[in-house]
Amino acid sequence: MSGSTDPIEACFHQVEQARKRVSRLKTKQITNVDDRDYLQSVAYAWFKSHRPLLVASVGEDALETVDVKLKAILDATGRSSAKTTYLAALKNAKDAIASLRGIALVPSRSPSSGSESPPDFAALASDPVMKAILERRWNECQRCIHASAPLAATVMMGGLLEALFVARANLLANKSPLFHAKATPIDSKTKKPLSLPEWTLRPYIDVAAELGWISRSGKDVAAVLRDYRNYIHPEKERAHGVNLNGHDAGMFWEVTKSLTRQLLSSVSTL
Fold it and tell me: What are the C-alpha distances in Å from 249 to residues 109, 158, 171, 188?
C-alpha cells in the first residue's frame, strides 16, 4: 500500500489501487477469500489508521461521508458481492476522500457563517457586464448556502467556475496551448480538437491543471464538485443515493473560492 505520510493521500491511493485490482478480476462475483480480505484491509486502514489522524484537524462531520462509503465496502465483503458493487463502492469512496482535499486547500476548517464580498474579477473579465454577472453569481452561491439549499448552491458554483475557466481561456492571445494539451477534448468523428464553445467543465478543469492555472489538488476537488453538480438530474441523484447537505455545500464553497483565487493569480503569469 501507499507509503504516503498524509492520511488523505494514503487512503486515496489505497482505494484507487483496490479499484484497479477489482477491475482486473475476471469473475462477476468476488468470492476469493484473499481478494475479500484485501478489500477489508483497505477499509480498516481508514477506520484504524487514517481516520484517527484527521479527526482533530477536520472534525467528525467532514469524515462522515467517507465513513459511509468505506463501510459499504466492508459490508460487501461479508457476502459474495458482485464485482460491479465493489467498483461502484470504491468509486464513491474515492470521490468522498478526494473531497476532503478541499478542506486542505484553505486555512479555515469550517465554512464561514457570514457572506464574503466577491473578488475583483476585472483581471479575468474586463467587460463590465460580464464582471457584474460573475459578482451576482458569487453572491447567489452564498445566498443558496445560507438558505439551506445545498444542491442549488453546488449547481451555482459549478456554473460560476465554468464561466471563470472560459474567461481565463479567452485571455490567451495564442490559444494553441489549449488545443495541444493532453487533456484537450477530441471530436470522435473528425479526430480534431473540439472548439472552445463545445468544451464542458471537465476538459476545462483538466486542461487548466495541465497548463498550471490550478494545482493538482485543486483539479481533484474541482472534479468532485463537477460530479456533484450533475446531481441536478433527479434520476442520477436517486440512482446514486446521494443527498447533499449544508456541510457539503460549505466545503464546496471553500473549494470554489480557492480555485477562483488560483485562476486570478494565474493571470499574473501572462
Answer: 14, 11, 30, 35
